[in-house]
Amino acid sequence: MTCPRPAHLRGQVRVAPQVRNDRTLTLDPAGRHRWCALAPCARVEVAMAKPRVHWQGSGYLDTNAGDEPLEAGFSGWHWSRASDTEGTTVLYDLAPRQGPAYRTALRFDRRGGLHEQATPEPAALPGTRWGIQRRTPADAPEHARVIETLEDTPFYARSLIASQVDGRPLEAIHESLDLDRFARRWVQALLPFRMPRRRTRR
What we know:
The protein is mainly β. It has one domain (10-194). It is 9% helix and 56% strand. The two termini are 22 Å apart.
């Protein structure tokens, strides 16, 4: 469904992996949450029949799995992904319920290699209209800025940002997730409107 005016969508999304990966990262000390970038470098083609639009470009595909709800394992996180001609960089900044904060920078190159880099201290980014705090690792605070906010909700923000890590300029898709906010009753009451469930006929 579209937003703000509800309408049905119809079309195809094709993802053509250029680099494949099957290595899984454990996100929490207890090992209950896992993440894998299945196609860290990919080409994506979107062909819509309704509305009649078409575009293509670079893309990415990952998956998450867990043995408990996300809000049971984390109070929140900041994540970003930046792709260029040499590969893809993924930055994780996690706040587990148990144990210390966990930050990592992963570089997937075009030959299928995976390299873990030193992660600089996070730099603050402007908060959203809903009060979601945003931050991202950066060599220096002046290297981090929000280019555009793409999605702004009571518990989640998706943005296009600029940063620099290990001397490499990055233009990244960035997300900040506040799971304390997500778990509040008033936010849970909004979810059926934000993510409507489709009833199946029997």
